[in-house]
UniProtKB/TrEMBL annotation:
<keyword id="KW-0547">Nucleotide-binding</keyword>
<dbReference type="InterPro" id="IPR011009">
    <property type="entry name" value="Kinase-like_dom_sf"/>
</dbReference>
<keyword id="KW-0418">Kinase</keyword>
<keyword id="KW-0808">Transferase</keyword>
<protein>
    <submittedName>
        <fullName>3-phosphoinositide-dependent protein kinase 1</fullName>
    </submittedName>
</protein>
<dbReference type="GO" id="GO:0005952">
    <property type="term" value="C:cAMP-dependent protein kinase complex"/>
</dbReference>
<dbReference type="GO" id="GO:0004691">
    <property type="term" value="F:cAMP-dependent protein kinase activity"/>
</dbReference>
<keyword id="KW-0067">ATP-binding</keyword>
<keyword id="KW-0723">Serine/threonine-protein kinase</keyword>
<dbReference type="GO" id="GO:0005524">
    <property type="term" value="F:ATP binding"/>
</dbReference>
Amino acid sequence: TEFLTFQKILKMDYEFPEGFPADAKDLVEKLLVLDHAKRLGANDMGETYESIRKHPFFEGIDWENIWEQTPPTISPNLEEYSVPDHLEPGLGKNQIMRLWEFDLSTSRG
């Protein structure tokens, strides 16, 4: 659940899967620092987050023209994937009931 995921992060109890890129691991670790003042980007002035942009994970990104660039292709890391037969597309009865009960006027973003 989301709650348990957040609890693991708060306890710094998380692992990276085998083959997780070193630059990505370093970036995630620096963003998940519990002390917000020591977190990557926390001391950057303005809204550009220069220290994050300069992280090796983002090497080669042209930040000035990023909106004009073609996004990278996302290719699944799964060698073989199939949808289980018991899954049906769309919303099930429980999901529809939850949506009907959802009150946008009381929700918080």
